[in-house]
Amino acid sequence: MSADDAAVPPQREGRRLRVGVLASQGGFAAHARMLGELGAEALEVRTPGAFADLDALVIPGGESTTISKAIERDGLAPAIRAHVAGGRPILGTCAGMIVCDREHLGLIDATVRRNAFGRQIASFETDLELAGIGPDSLRAVFIRAPWIESHGGEVEVLATVDGHPVAIRDGRVLACSFHPELTDDLRVHALLMAIATAAREERAGAEAAAGEDRGGQG
Ligand code: GLN
């Protein structure tokens, strides 16, 4: 522990963030590695039981039909919805963004168009300005990527390509068309972890307030 760690205020102490990566299919290992680099405990999630005590969840890229079928087969949809209903954040990337949309799990008030960039430019890289991660642009890798076709008024657009939203935030759900796990820029995962830390502090505050109420009555 460094001297700086010792100066961390008490409410920020405690266990590391526990971040699950849905490991049904797709690029989960690279996400887990990045989360580990940021100091999280990264867990591969394949069963409803694995959701207990998660502070955040990543739904990685891959093939959205395969991931959706695995979610169905393994009975994970109720656990994923309960995770979000409990105020815990999610990051969905590429196929993971598709799985979050209105026509799938309904975690974001948005409709996603699959393979939206067409065959000719199926895969490309570009530098994005992404709201919420600081002024430096982010190198973003798109692979047969979707974009957000339409979204509700509460949805915050964080980045666009050719006028199409490619990164959004809806409440505590982040979704992006590209693969933040394929560069060494940790800022998208760091944003997820910042949201998770704030959410955890909120839960701890609510629990403490509930405890005081009980104390007052007793
Ligand atoms: N094209 C894929 C799909 O529609 C997503 C690609 C990806 O996740 N890289 O599921």
Would you write up a description of this structure?
The chain has 218 residues and is an alpha/beta fold. It has helices spanning 3-6, 28-37, 64-73, 77-85, 95-100, 187-217, and strands spanning 18-22, 41-45, 56-59, 90-93, 110-113, 123-128, 138-143, 147-151, 156-161, 164-170, 173-176. The N and C termini lie far apart (40 Å). Bound molecules: glutamine (GLN). Glutamine binds next to α5.
| Level-2 CATH architecture | 3-Layer(aba) Sandwich
Shape: globular
CATH topology name, in short, is: Rossmann fold
According to DSSP, the number of beta strands is: 11
The largest sheet is: 7 strands, mixed
Which small molecules are bound? glutamine
How much of the sequence lies in strands comes to 25-35%
Q: What is the CATH superfamily label? A: Class I glutamine amidotransferase (GATase) domain
Number of domains: 1
Query: What pattern of helices and strands is seen along the backbone?
Result: HEHEEHHEHEEEEEEEH
What would the average pLDDT be, to the nearest integer? 92
Q: What structural class results from the helix and strand content?
A: alpha/beta
CATH class: Alpha Beta
Distance between the termini: 40 Å
Name the helicity range.
Answer: 25-40%
Adjacency order of strands in the biggest sheet: 2-1-3-4-11-10-9
CA-atom Rg in angstroms: 18 Å
Uncertain ranges: 1-11
Number of helices: 6
